[in-house]
Amino acid sequence: xxKGWERWHSDRLGQxxxxxxxxxxxxxxxxxxxxxxxxxxxxxxxxxxxxxxxxAEGRIKLYSCDSVAGKAMMMSWGxxxxxxxxxxxxxxxxRHEVIPAIRADSGGTDALIITAGASIGAFNAVATLCRYPDxxxxxxxxxxxxxxxxxxxxxxxxDLFYAxxxxxxxxxxxPPLDLLRQRFAILATGEGRWETAGYSxxxxxxxxxxxxxxxxxxxxxxxxxxxPTWHRMLPQYLDELTx
Length: 243
Known about the structure:
By secondary structure, the chain is α/β, with parallel strands linked by helices.
């Protein structure tokens, strides 16, 4: 399996960012790490191997970047307002730095990217789909936590509003919404240990109220908020989305 990575300094974030890659060709898939994860977390935790069949067939090319804002959130670095600025800036860096790097690495393809992630990674996958439907065609959110305000000491700022689809999507209108209505979000969840299926249903309600196609898949009580669950979920959904 071909693997590579690149690293650059992001002026938007004020720090270095790493983008890792697995596979030689196929539909670009950007997998966001869990809250504090780095670009290679999905390989260490077995998620890349779980998608090995799709990679070998050339149906997907996996990418992952550092969870810059998530790490700051989990470590409580700086004031909540700064961490929320970093969250909004992280999405901006994904749009203007990470996605162009993916396109360049994929030979300049203009194919719509699939985003995916688990836990806080699911939030980033769905949020970037909703913010940038001109670049992203579908999102796979697994065991998602979609309301992040509790992680910022209850502070609410404009940065959280613009970063969080639960908050900005109800007011979205015009051409951006028209384009988003042509996209698709899969919200998968278990009901086992540390899972809260209600988070996915709440996100689905907000998407559905604006006419954005989505589906909640509840895998039931045998599936926990752990990597083995996501090993089963992600290849299944990527297979569906790349047929």
